[in-house]
Design brief:
alpha/beta, Rossmann fold, 7-stranded mixed beta sheet, 4-stranded parallel beta sheet, 13 helices, 46% helix
């Protein structure tokens, strides 16, 4: 009897001393609001609507968790993408921030900077586009990267039909790890599944996630491939620019555009027949989830370990898992995809426009963004 009482007492003491461990024995880990952290949200570039939406989601989580610290939103310009991100990371190290949340412009070149940040005690979480595993705690994956290739193949087949035809890819930058993984996944589907044998990928070009560059690359594809029937752009900047190029040239009935795009930006082109199908996920949710994960890690509430389960506010329960697309890497998989067509785009585009209007009504976010930009010399 005494031995039983002793064991019960030890169990109770461990539950008090090691709440994270006991929580994992049963309930998912839950964040404790009100802890002060200065956190940097670092997207690939400024001026991209999807990254503004990610910022909106991160701000929502920041306020929900009652963090009295700063949420600093900063990014480089497209023409200074990789060096700019390095400068911002190094500035964040100097400022002794607590966490950096980065959508990486390069898988390898950012490693020295993100590793330096981690050595300085800064929590580094990647989202949207990762760095190599040794330079991050874990990666917040918007969707399974292999699934992205399958979705693009399915949209291409749906648009071109069983008879198939020539199509080209308009990507962001040659170094973007997420874009490259999606394209590789698409190529794998085309090579291994006879269902798509009539689809002919003729070229991959890069618009650097710049509207003008992407527009010109789309026009270049027209000149280079007279039989081209589809441009697949796995980038929201590229798909909008390509659709505009086809519309301006009066080619929407001959060359379709598809890929990953924002409904609010693509609604007109879809209704005009320039972009009959495209897909995406919620960047607002991605920013929200990224912030929650980073807050939990930076406060010490949880460790970046496979099998750890946690609550992410309104988005529910997630589990850290091994990343099947990268050796020795960890990820949190958000999902899912949404495919947009003329039949459903009105609803989604209206939701995005309403969200943008709500953002415009408040001055607090803009003031914080301006303050953060002034505090950092980079970007």
């Amino acid at each position: 009897m005494n031995k039983l009482r002793f064991l019960i007492l030890v169990t109770v003491i461990l539950a008090v001393i090691l709440p994270g461990v006991s929580a994992q024995d049963g309930d998912p880990i839950v964040a404790e609001p009100g802890q002060e952290l200065n956190m940097v949200l670092l997207p690939k570039t400024l001026g991209n609507a999807v990254f503004d939406q990610a910022h909106e989601g991160a701000m929502e989580a920041h306020e929900e968790l009652e963090n009295p610290g700063e949420l600093i939103f900063n990014a480089p310009t497209p023409d200074n993408a990789i060096p700019g991100q390095i400068e911002i990371i190094e500035s964040a190290i100097t400022q002794e921030v607590d966490a950096i949340m980065i959508s990486a412009n390069d898988y390898e070149q950012l490693l020295p900077s993100t590793q330096s940040a981690m050595e300085a005690g800064i929590t580094v979480v990647t989202w949207d586009s990762p760095v190599a595993p040794e330079g991050e705690a874990l990666f917040i994956a918007q969707v399974d990267f292999d699934e992205t290739g399958q979705v693009m193949a399915d949209m291409a087949l749906s648009i071109l039909g069983e008879e198939g035809g020539e199509f080209a890819i308009l990507s962001a930058t040659p170094d973007a790890s997420n874009q490259n993984a999606w394209i590789e996944a698409l190529q794998t589907v085309l090579e291994e599944d006879d269902t798509y044998e009539a689809l002919e990928l003729v070229d991959i070009v890069y618009g650097n996630d710049d509207p003008d560059d992407s527009y010109n690359e789309a026009l270049g594809l027209i000149d280079s491939y007279p039989d081209l029937q589809l441009i697949m752009a796995p980038t929201t900047v590229g798909i909008a620019a390509a659709a505009k190029a086809m519309f301006d040239e009066g080619l929407c009935s001959e060359i379709a555009v598809s890929g990953l795009g924002l409904p609010a930006e693509m609604q007109e082109f879809t209704e005009l027949g320039c972009a009959p199908q495209f897909a995406l996920w919620s960047f607002t949710d991605l920013g929200y989830l990224t912030y929650y994960v980073t807050y939990l890690l930076a406060t010490g509430a949880m460790e970046a370990e496979e099998g750890v389960t946690f609550e992410a506010g309104r988005m529910g329960t997630y589990t850290i898992e091994a990343d099947p697309t990268r050796e020795d890497a960890l990820r949190v998989l958000m999902g899912p995809f949404s495919v947009y067509t003329e039949e459903n785009i009105d609803e989604w585009a209206m939701d995005e426009e309403e969200m943008d209007e709500e953002e415009g009504e408040g001055d607090e976010e803009g003031e914080m963004e301006e303050e953060a930009t002034e505090e950092s010399d980079a970007g």
